[in-house]
Fold this sequence. Notes:
The longest helix is centred in the middle third of the chain and has 28 residues, at 109-136. β2 (36-41), α2 (44-58) and β3 form a beta-alpha-beta unit. The chain is built from nine helices and seven strands; from the N terminus they run βαβαβαβαβαβααβαα. The relative contact order is 0.13. With 268 residues, the protein is an alpha/beta fold. The chain has helices at residues 21-32, 44-58, 74-84, 109-136, 157-176, 196-200, 216-229, 238-246, 252-263, and strands at 12-16, 36-41, 62-66, 91-94, 140-144, 183-187, 233-234. The protein has one domain (12-263): NAD(P)-binding Rossmann-like Domain (Rossmann fold, 3-Layer(aba) Sandwich), CATH 3.40.50. α1 runs parallel beside α2 and α3 packs parallel to α4. Strands 3-2-1-4-5-6-7 form a seven-stranded parallel sheet, sandwiched between helices.
Amino acid sequence: MPATAATEPTITALVTGASSGIGAALAALMAADGVNLVMTARHGPEMEAMAADWRQRHGVAVSVIELDLARPGAARELAAEIDQRGLAIDYLVNNAGFGTYGHFAATSVTETEELLRLNVEALTTLTGLLLPGIIARRGKIMNVASTAAFQPGPHMAVYYASKAYVLHFSEALAYELKDTGVTVTSFCPGATATGFQERARMQKAAMLHLVKMPSSEVVAGAAWQAMRAGRGVVVPGALNWLLTFGVRFAPRRLVTWAAALVTGPGAN
Length: 268
């Protein structure tokens, strides 16, 4: 009898912040490549519409979990819901995050706490809870950091610091997992045309008017390619790479001054 072709293993990916922006664009690419999805974000109807389309067009299984990961304990709720539904996660994409704009002294402490819960705590907790299964399946993790991770950021101090945590945590985790078959990608995009700027209320920031921002689809394409290849720290775009490379050699006061210049209010 003729040999039958080996069946490709079924992969299921969890994408946080999947209702819009890079998260939605990345989930679309995964679905098109036959990856089953678990999508989570605050906006359920948007995800349900995308899920229905991808199920029909790509024949993939898509589960939607509407949840605000900035709430205390939400990451544990998400992991418990995934377990209750009998879903096994092979790929984890920690994409959800937001920023705040303005001087720290004038920023709401409550909003700062929510930022840290989402950008730092939820990412860490979710990774820890899902990691045993990901190791067992020799899966992949991608944590979305930012070019902000490479320097201090006056006017967005906590956001920049949170992304530095994501980068350093991911690099250390990648080292610890190097003999398990699990890869950890630290994806560090620059400013991208998403709803991030509107939520952060940073429309007047100089950086948004210096160069044309790439689309979510372009950035997501680079992210998916990097994750599939199991690459470590990835900074998409030649200009972004040059800037993040350059700060390693500049005096710290100069780096902070330059960051303040591009994050501060610019001419519109």
